[in-house]
Amino acid sequence: MPTLHAGIDIGGTYIKYGVLDDAGTILTKRSVPTQAEMGLDHVITQLQRIVHELHEVHPNLSTWGVGVPGVVDPSSRRVQCPPNLPGWDSVPLGDILRSMVDQHVVVENDANAAALAEYGYGAGKGHKDMLYVTLGTGVGGGVILNGRLHTGPYGDAGEIGHIIIRADIQPTEAERSQGRGFRAGVLEEFVGRVGILHTLQQTGLASTIPSETDIVDIVDLARAANDGNPVAREVLQQTATWLGLGLSSAMAVLGLRVVVVGGGISAAGEPLFSPLIKTIRERAIPTIAASFSVIPAAFGQDAGLIGAAFLPLHVHS
Question: Which residue among 5, 29, 41, 61 has the highest number of C-beta atoms inside a 10 angstrom radius?
Fold first, then answer.
């Protein structure tokens, strides 16, 4: 009987979940809205339903891995302060999930999980040193050094979404009072989902982006850019410039030459990657600018799910 691995990728907008076999084949893949604004208890209830559903479909699951968009303490495995999950200040998610299942459970930062997937099985295979960046509701990063996931002594290494790229932007009083002053001027505010859509709205031409719904979203923007829509391409060029500045800093600090880019907006392809590469070539230190690679993620939006499922094979709980 093949070994089956359950993966849950908790995002700020959707929870993706599924089951993979040892070869990395996705046997089941589904998603539900996270509804994070409804609070921690609601999301935990969502997870209970997901666990029950996966057990119903695959009763012989061996391991469980969960990716979450926040810092995961390497000692306690508590999830700390995910910016897109209100109320998750210090959550013992591993303990909560272990109370639901009787299999091995590992919890890790979602970008770290995706980095492991791309390094072991995808676009980063063969690169023992690489930086993975995921562009979704937020902006996450995962660092692979000498073939191993590097999270630092406290689990918060690789949080590239919090690189400050606009030091002139000061936190508002409301942000300070809410404990969110640290987010003023950071990369995630510009190239996360909300930031990209804000850039689009600032053009005053959002209505020129075709959408199957009443609200233009990232997938619509990526599709329009590939179809040659000039507004969409302009927005992605600005997004790529901000991202390139942040990555140039991260690559200099880490001494890395290989960057794998995943997440929803990465599906835009050339309209995003061409200006991104151009920015890094112009703004990275010369030794890096002379020889670097920016590679689209092989697994796209499935990287987090695949990485989560294989976490128990790579990370000790």
Answer: 5
